[in-house]
Amino acid sequence: MDFTSNVSAQLNAGLILPEGIVIITLLIVLVGDLIVGREGARVLPYIGIGGLLTSIAVLYLQWNTENPIALLGSFSADDLSIVFRSIIALSTAVTILMSIRYVEQTGSALSEFITILLTATVGAMFLSGANELVMIFVALETLSISSYLMTGYMKRDSRSNEAALKYLLIGAASSAVFLYGSSLLYGLSGGETSLPKIAAGIAQTEGGELAGAIALVFMIAGIAFKISAVPFHQWTPDVYEGSPTPVVAFLSVGSKAAGFALAIRLLVVAFPLEQPQWRLIFTALAILSMILGNAVALAQSSMKRLLAYSSIGQAGFVMIGMVAATEAGYASMIFYLLVYLFMNLGAFTGVILFSLRTGSDQITDYAGLYQKDPLLTLGLSICLLSLGGIPPLAGFFGKIYLFWAGWQAGLYGLVILGLVTSVISIYYYIRVVKMMVVKEPQEMSEAIQNYPVLRWNLPGMRPLQVGLVFSLVVTSLAGILSNPLFSVANASVQNTEFLQGVSGVQEAKAESDQLSLNPTAPAILDK
């Protein structure tokens, strides 16, 4: 009895109930499709959304759990993971809303698409709390393989097949690099797979600096691929352009959030002594991502490619919080990802609506949209302006928080570069908005002149409308009423044990370096 209760306490399986709910929902959708067939499958997407919202409710109830360790130490359900898992589940719920009409119009099976999407969600949620190398890799591959399948889901579209092949080849290479780094960590730590034990094992290993540095670089390369950081971004524009738009929306938010969650946990827990090294690497990644992402976006003619390079630039902004490596830095990352969820998914919902009605993805075809579809113009404009950081929208406060955290950490050059590239990004976002609101009839594009009559009563159109209006409202109000989100972001960092006192790590390291350079310092300090 004691043995059983001890194992049960170590498993603490109740903490993975949110993931369990998503898995059960996945099975209901899969089996329900076999039972009711395609005719009765219209209710299955709403079952998927209901399961995801239930999972978010359970995550809310698990906030600030006393013992957040589950599955024999391989999973941590601390507040940091709760926030990231909620972001991922919510992004999937909105993605399902926007995919109903899109997938049905292509003639593909909607329930199978939702099943694969929920599988990717389970992998991303486990990745956000994984505290052990085996679980990290299994969760990462669950997310990655599901993403490959969704990217090539439109089998009749040659662009979708091409995107899936590119994503598969480059993704497999990045997984191999990440796995090699993990194996080096396993060897250096003396056969440990738990992240805290790996950190302790590396600290006791003599002469392992070179191998440790290689492991660090390889694992950061794997993470950089997942968050689309330059120079590991090559897959992003082609995959974004060729993939089904709902898949792109999920990759840009859910997959990216999981990548940042993994980066924070892995680097802070397993590489505390190498903090200067990984901060330097992320500084380089942030600089390259902000410059290339925003500069190349200026020349894009395709809306999806523009949002692809925008996504690369946005990753560069978020990495400022990673480089800061302070409590404020991590909290600013979480806050920005929370608001990025709504403004980016809102933009993709607008792109889906426009492509369904016109069949076009070209920016020039948006000319004069305001005269035919005011709601779509308003929703897309607000989301794009928020991505650019125009006040008082949510994106403005997100960037201000990131830049403030970077400035407090002494990253003056990085923050100034972020401000400059943010101004550049405003130009290409406003270019699209200006295109949509031209007033002269002769300036309208041919696609807008032939724009179909608005019919929201068509199957699958109401969910798209709900998704657009919901994203529009949250993006508008989250900037003005941002205090609740600020509180959630700060509390998630302050309540997470391994992030407590991260601000003091740099000070202690600086003091240690000063003492090593000045041997008389201890005597002076004692006096």
From TrEMBL:
InterPro entries referenced in this protein's UniProt entry, alphabetically: NADH-Q_OxRdtase_suN/2 (IPR010096), ND/Mrp_TM (IPR001750), Ndh2_N (IPR045693)
Q: Give the subcellular location.
A: Cellular thylakoid membrane; Endomembrane system; Membrane
By what name is this protein known? NAD(P)H-quinone oxidoreductase subunit 2
Give start and end of each NAD(P)H-quinone oxidoreductase subunit 2 N-terminal domain. Answer: 13-100
Quote the cellular component terms of the Gene Ontology held in the record: endomembrane system; plasma membrane-derived thylakoid membrane
Q: What membrane topology does the UniProt entry give?
A: Multi-pass membrane protein
Q: Major place of localization?
A: membrane
What residues form the membrane-spanning segments? Answer: 15-36, 43-63, 83-103, 110-127, 133-153, 165-188, 208-227, 247-268, 280-299, 306-324, 330-354, 375-397, 409-430, 464-486
Q: What highest taxon heads this organism's lineage?
A: Bacteria
Task: Please report which protein family the annotation says this sequence is part of.
Answer: Belongs to the complex I subunit 2 family.
Q: What is its EC number?
A: 7.1.1.-
Q: Does the keyword Transport apply?
A: yes
- Where is each NADH:quinone oxidoreductase/Mrp antiporter transmembrane domain found? 130-425
What does the function comment of this entry state? NDH-1 shuttles electrons from NAD(P)H, via FMN and iron-sulfur (Fe-S) centers, to quinones in the respiratory chain. The immediate electron acceptor for the enzyme in this species is believed to be plastoquinone. Couples the redox reaction to proton translocation (for every two electrons transferred, four hydrogen ions are translocated across the cytoplasmic membrane), and thus conserves the redox energy in a proton gradient.
MF GO annotations: NADH dehydrogenase (ubiquinone) activity; oxidoreductase activity, acting on NAD(P)H, quinone or similar compound as acceptor; quinone binding
Q: Which PANTHER family match?
A: NADH DEHYDROGENASE
Catalytic reaction annotation: a plastoquinone + NADPH + (n+1) H(+)(in) = a plastoquinol + NADP(+) + n H(+)(out); a plastoquinone + NADH + (n+1) H(+)(in) = a plastoquinol + NAD(+) + n H(+)(out)
